[in-house]
Amino acid sequence: MTKETEECLRKKKNAFNEQFKNAVAAIASGLSVGNSVENAVVSGEKELRLIYDSKERIIREFQIMIRQLKLHVSMEKIFEDLALRVPEEDVRDFVTVFVTVKKSGGNLVAIIADTARQISEKQEVEREIEILLAAKKYEFKIMTMVPFLIIGYMSLSFPEFMKPLYGNIFGVGVMTICLGIYTVAYYMGLKIIKIEV
Questions:
Q1: What is the pTM of this model?
Q2: How far is CA 178 from CA 148, 183, 191, in A?
Q3: What is the pLDDT of residues 100-122, one digit of tens each?
Q4: What is d(CA 129, CA 197) in angstroms, rounded to the nearest whole number?
């Protein structure tokens, strides 16, 4: 998988997670005004259409859920199907919470509102981490160029200082070891900045 493909998939995943957060908030809003879960899903879809284009995945998923509702499929089964179609952690967690609460008879409105808040907080933390990682990646790129810039500058400005490093076997050996250490450090740095948020 190319870097561009990975980046494109990551952007799609982040976009859907943002959409799903808004979807859960819309369902929670519908429940808070006294709607049943089924009606909250229908009203949630209408709310989401005000924010997103009909081609967005969250709208398509809600349309599937509404079709299932018309076929009298239970809400638990509808959400479980959603979790199978969209293997995202936020979706899976929400469905697990929803199914558990429905079976145990807990306060559905409060728990879904709380789940929406938790998803929002988690995404906020992930965004902050991504910003920090982006800064560190930029620093890493600069730091990888510094040794070559120093050697280039010294070679052009003070060739007499560089002669002992490249003008005999001992100097070449030392610089080869330094290049090896640099290469190992470079690949270690690449692995460190590839942290998944």
A1: 0.68
A2: 12, 9, 20
A3: 888 887 778 888 888 888 888 88
A4: 7
